[in-house]
Design goal:
It contains twelve helices and 20 strands. Strand 9 and strand 10 form a beta hairpin. The strands form five sheets. Strands 1, 2, 8, 9, 10, 11 and 20 form a seven-stranded mixed beta sheet that branches. The chain binds flavin-N7 protonated-adenine dinucleotide. Flavin-N7 protonated-adenine dinucleotide binds next to helix 3, strand 2, strand 6, strand 9 and helix 10. It comes from Actinoplanes regularis. Belongs to the GMC oxidoreductase family. Keywords: FAD, Flavoprotein, Oxidoreductase, Signal.
Length: 531
């Protein structure tokens, strides 16, 4: 309840989130070389935002460093973010062409040229997988589908056996849901809303094929969405806004956790700074090196600051890359060998089905998914498939799914000394168990409904979207690479707080798990290490 009250207090102050965050940046300004801070948080996604709020509430001045932009200024169209139908430079992180997850239509590449810019969605390419991540103050919360799903209790116990399950479900998951502003859809409205026809069609066919379905909570304000459909407010989720940001309606972290942290007056946010090194400082604490970048990604200046404590919250990829590089380069040579191990894609695979002409999915599709097919209990191939929108603004007769499966394959990060890059060993073929599990479900549905797969959306003649993920997890696993609360062994004052703690899979969309685990860990760290 504390978090709920604090967040309410933050907004009750009368200042909108953007003003609070602007104050946070102004109060602490950007970090400068020579600064000495009590706590420095690398990254402003879920792990970082929870850490920032709880540290500042505990009276500790906290500096958050974020490589992406603050996303508080309107662009050429009068809005902060662009939509999915007309992506411009704001869409992608330092690319000259878009790299849409569904990059093809009728087998034709539909990506377009854009100006290289520090846009909000990164499609980071490794040898065998593209990893989509949010870039900006708020991390993945700026670009994600908002689905806020608590994992199954037995599966959580299976993936993180060192964590007390009762305290997670009694305390930390409820705390995370409150802090994130999670809300449930009005199920009666769902049944009639034109913008969820696509979900109802998929649901009815799944049920008729023997599968059960479930509603999904979200951090998008469903009350706002109702008004969008009624035509009384500006559209966002109903205006093809999702993966390049939502201009309205979404409770992203800059409006929840980070706004509440800013309201304490103890938060500073340094945006457009990429942390490149962390090493022990001879005077105590750690030296953190960072490059300030411009909107084309060029380094403007390099800064070093000293921090008594450093919280790695750069995401599964960002944290793993930094730590693996620091170990290899000798800055943090004693990091355990488990750092860089155990990375997985949460069993992600996407697929689409073609509907019969008489089974329309609707021209207006809500960008925020609200329903999933739950076949996780099937021991032959657990699948939890979100019914995803295809918000093209026109009838397409397409049913799209993001399947989360129990893929046992894992990958490692390693440092390539000749290029200086950190590589990820994942190969596309490692996703075959995910494809097999999803195929069982969707083959069954197709057979029962006499429908077929679309093979024109993920490439030419390619049924499965098996070469990208939205859910990078692991690389610095709890109780293996860190202790049971995210402390890095051998380096007092260094902590890991994000999705890298989770061993490659949560069985559902991951941000509630990441948030709840961060709530659990920071509570322990504050009570034992900081007071
Ligand atoms: P994250 O949110 O990625 O935050 C890390 C931050 O650190 C980012 O802001 C980075 O820019 C920053 N950073 C990285 N390296 C550095 C550095 N060296 N220096 C400074 N800053 C740095 O990490 N999950 C759900 O639960 N439900 C959904 O509906 C959902 N939909 C998604 C849709 C899309 C398109 C994507 C990409 C993801 C989706 N996810 C969803 C996944 C979710 O957003 C992701 O698991 C979390 O954002 C991960 O949280 P972390 O705190 O680990």
């Amino acid at each position: 309840m504390t978090s709920r009250r604090t967040l309410l207090r933050a907004t009750a102050l009368g200042a909108p989130a953007a003003v609070l965050l602007a104050k946070a940046s102004a109060a602490g300004a950007a970090l400068s070389t020579g600064d000495h801070v009590a706590a420095l948080v690398i990254g402003s996604g879920y792990g970082g935002a929870v850490t920032a709020l709880r540290l500042t509430q505990a009276g500790i001045a906290t500096a958050v460093v974020e490589m992406g932009m603050a996303w508080n200024t309107a662009g050429s169209n009068g809005k902060i973010f662009c939509d999915m139908l007309e992506p411009d430079q704001r869409s992608y992180w330092l690319r000259t062409t878009t790299d849409q997850p569904l990059g093809y239509f009728l087998g034709i590449n539909v990506n377009k040229s854009i100006t290289r810019y520090t846009g909000v969605l990164d499609s980071e390419k490794f040898a065998g997988i593209r990893v989509y991540q949010g870039r900006g103050v708020g991390g993945g919360s700026l670009v994600n589908g908002g689905m806020a799903v608590v994992p199954r209790r037995d599966y959580f116990a299976e993936i993180l056996p060192s964590v007390d399950v009762a305290s997670m479900y009694d305390t930390y998951f409820p705390r995370a849901n409150a802090g994130l502003g999670v809300n449930a859809i009005d199920t009666a409205w769902f049944e009639t809303a034109s913008c969820y026809r696509y979900a109802r069609v998929s649901r009815d066919q799944a049920r008729a094929s023997g599968y059960s379905t479930t509603f999904l909570n979200n951090v998008y304000d469903f009350g706002y969405m109702k008004q969008e459909l009624a035509g009384t407010v500006t559209r966002s989720a109903l205006a093809s806004e999702v993966i390049y940001g939502n201009n309205y309606g979404k409770r992203s972290l800059d409006k929840t956790y980070l706004a509440a942290a800013a309201a304490t007056g103890r938060l500073s946010i340094t945006a457009q700074h990429v942390v490149t090194a962390v090493a022990p400082n001879s005077a105590g604490g750690y030296t953190v090196t960072m490059n300030q970048i411009d909107t084309a990604g060029a380094t403007v200046t390099t800064k070093t600051v000293r921090a008594d404590r450093v919280f790695f919250a750069a995401g599964s990829i960002g944290t793993s890359k930094l730590l693996v590089a620091m170990r290899a380069q000798g800055a943090l040579p004693n990091l355990p060998s488990a750092v860089g191990q155990g990375w997985g894609n949460n069993g992600n695979v996407m697929v689409a089905r073609a509907q019969h002409l008489w089974n329309t999915t609707g021209a207006l599709e809500a960008g925020m998914p609200a329903m999933g097919i739950d076949n996780w209990a099937d021991p032959a191939g657990p699948v939890f498939a979100e019914i995803a929108p295809f918000p093209a603004g026109t009838e397409l007769w397409i049913s799209l799914y993001l399947a989360i499966t129990k893929n046992p394959n894992r990958a490692q990060f390693s440092y390539n000394s000749s290029t200086g890059a950190v590589e990820l060993s994942w190969q596309t073929a490692q996703n075959q168990p995910a494809v097999n599990a999803a195929k069982r479900v969707f083959d069954t549905i197709n057979k029962a409904q006499v429908t077929v797969y679309r093979s024109d959306l993920f490439g030419v003649n390619k049924v499965w979207g098996d070469d990208f993920t939205y859910h990078p997890l692991g690389g610095c696993i709890l109780n293996q690479a860190t202790d049971n609360y995210g402390r890095l062994p051998g380096y007092p004052g260094l902590y890991v707080m994000d999705g890298s703690l989770i061993p490659g899979s949560t069985g559902v969309n991951p941000f509630v798990t990441i948030t709840a685990l961060a709530e659990r860990n920071i509570e322990k760290i504050i009570s034992t290490d900081l007071t």
